[in-house]
Design goal:
This protein is α+β, with helices and mostly antiparallel strands. It has three helices and eleven strands. The N terminus is likely disordered.
Length: 198
């Protein structure tokens, strides 16, 4: 395709004895240009890595142990305003303001430890159905502790009861929030300031 073109152009400027070597160099140059153009086009068609892509890191989920605190009742001075009322107690004084000791001859009253643990209570509105509130699981997800609750409603009662669960769980370093959950829904969230340990 190009054979006549180099002859025409080069015959004007180049002596005939050097024509073969010039023609060879010219053809090598054209071949290199064609190869370069093809490789450049191929590289443009290749998908380029997106430098703005973000890498999602799965949250770290760790189980949290809970300990039930037996021997308490909700004082009648405390009004349950929500269907599920979640309470976090910062100290013994706030605990004693809401809960009374239900001591009998046979039961044991568990004393909360506010230095090592976070102390909480869950109360339901007064009901005439045998109702139980329980903790299905507790876990730490990044900087939050999630407490999962379950409610079981049983038979009718001849009296009114106020379902209550008092419990504690260890203070975890770096925790900023405690969430009380029903299924995937957060029903109450508390800010918390437990500093991270270095």
């Amino acid at each position: 395709m190009f054979s006549f073109f180099p002859n025409f152009v080069l015959s004007i400027h180049v002596k005939p004895e050097k024509m073969k070597s010039v023609r060879l160099l010219f053809m090598i140059g054209i071949s290199m240009l064609i190869c370069f153009a093809c490789s450049s086009k191929a590289s443009k068609n290749q998908p380029q890595a997106d430098s703005t892509a973000t890498v999602e890191i799965a949250p770290q989920v760790l189980p949290v142990s809970t300990q039930l605190l037996a021997g308490y009742f909700l004082k009648n001075t405390y009004k349950v305003n929500d269907d599920v009322d979640c309470i976090l107690f910062p100290d013994q004084a706030s605990f004693d303001k809401v809960l009374g000791i239900a001591k009998t001859m046979t039961n044991k009253v568990d004393k909360p430890n506010f230095e090592k643990n976070i102390v909480a209570a869950i109360a339901l509105k007064p009901t005439k159905k045998n109702t139980e509130i329980s903790i299905s699981k507790a876990e730490k997800v990044n900087e939050a502790i999630n407490i999962y609750l379950e409610q079981t409603i049983g038979e009718d009662l001849t009296y009114t009861m106020t379902p209550l669960k008092v419990f504690s769980f260890p203070k975890e370093s770096g925790v900023s929030t405690v969430n009380f959950m029903m299924g995937a829904k957060v029903i109450k969230s508390f800010p918390l300031n437990v500093p991270a340990t270095n």
